[in-house]
Amino acid sequence: MVEKIYVISRLGMLNADLILNLILDFFKKRDISASSYTLYGDEVHLEEVASILKKKSRHTFLLNGNGFEIHLASVLRYQVDILSISAENGKNMFWDDWITSISEQVKVVQAWLVDADYDYWQNAEDSLQYISHGRPWEHLPKRSNGLPPPLEKQIIDTSNNPGHRRFCMGYLEAIGAVMWLGDDFWSLTGANKNDLLKQSWLKSREIPNGLLRIQVGNTLFSTASEGSDAIQLMLRGLLFPRAVAV
User: Exposure of 48 by Cβ count < 10 A (0-12 exposed, 13-18 middle, 19+ buried)?
Assistant: First the structure.
């Protein structure tokens, strides 16, 4: 299983230099190689990335190598920065340590951990994604992409998938079996922290830097069947009471 973590902060908080330095320090402590990565297709050493970005006046990046994909992006429309890290050896990544490292430097709105394959297919909207993998798609619900002609087309409707993601102002509607929720999360989403703490089917504990760590079960969500969908939908209901269908 490839594990993937998402970290959300307010726009302008996830500075590329800061994130790259944190990653270099994190990898060094765990003897993870900083060489043999690609930055938009060009091979680089992690220590070179910051200067390359400055020369090109870029503030975001996509890095691949050594079983990792590291993507930093900004979404101006929703006023968020989003960092995602996929790791083939995710079981050895000590994600809690990573969240502690980043939350010491940046105010985290939310973070969550997912099975990367499950996350991908729960959010795949383009039929070409299915066609390229030889997966059937004709039976799936469709909706308009909402664009005016001639850009309007039918896409796969993922809005009822338990693991779908949706951008909202200042945060994302998204869940994981392990989540870290910051102080700002509650006011942004309208979720009731006390209601969450009362739930016997999830574990929760306060951790440093104003975060609440919650966990459902002992494995990541990897299916929308066998009762897992009901648990995921209950979690969504607690965390995003204002959510509406799109």
Answer: middle
